[in-house]
Amino acid sequence: MFVNEVTCKSLLNRSRLADYCINPYVGCGHACRYCYAESYTRRFTKHKEPWGQFVDVKVNAPEILEKEVQRRKRGKVFISSLTDAYQPLESKYGITRKILKILLDFQFPLSIQTKSSSVLRDLDLLSKFEDCEVGFTITSMDESIRKIFEPHSSPTSERLDAIEKLKEKGVTTYVFFGPILPLLSDRNLEEYFQTLADLKIDFVYVDRLNLKPGLWNTLEKTVRTKYPQLVSEWQTVLGSKNDYYERVRTVIQDLCARKKIQCEMCY
Ligand code: SF4
Description:
- The chain has 11 helices and 11 strands.
- By secondary structure, the chain is α/β, with parallel strands linked by helices.
- Helix 2 runs parallel beside helix 4 and helix 8 (189-199) packs parallel to helix 11.
- The structure holds iron/sulfur cluster.
- Iron/sulfur cluster (SF4) is lined by residues 28, 30-32, 35, 37, 83-84, 115.
């Protein structure tokens, strides 16, 4: 892992996901195979290392945020859009925790999305926000799929335990079911949504896999190696006009209605 300590000029950036977004790191040690942030990150940095093997740590982020929160209008902050604020390096640097302390002082509404159960470290802070939600991406309940596509993230069972603990402390929780990996994520949808219903999840977002420029090159290697029998089906689903995601949408909407899960389709 190549770790660089860098300084940033701004942190609280305008976003279409919320009023602001904060990315404490550049790059992400979770190394997800379908990551949308990779191409964007490479466009704006000089990194040539494989995705997941470099991280720039914004070491002055708390200092910059301290100034920004005093002059910017209060608004909802999304953490994070281009990295995971609870990737493994956070346990060493604690940048995210310092950021939360500042946002809490000014009671900025907060939305965190992560693939790491280490968000529980900050439960003491999260439970003090007047408006706070924590979401976990779960592309499949099948641990073997998780290990292939999200190799350095927390096991799914740990994410589910984390949801339970957050709920116990009164923190709103959600699951992001996406990107739906063709013919993998849709295995056992009944079981997937029953697990969320049992957890009394507050809401679920669902999204398809969108092939951003260059993404198929990365994904194809993974699918060819791990699921060679699915390569042509993936090519059909992602590369031609077909109704795969519409059929999955119908099944999910039906399941959520039956199990009384609040669900928002993002596609
Ligand atoms: S956790 Fe998010 S930002 Fe990090 S590699 Fe995975 S998809 Fe990309």
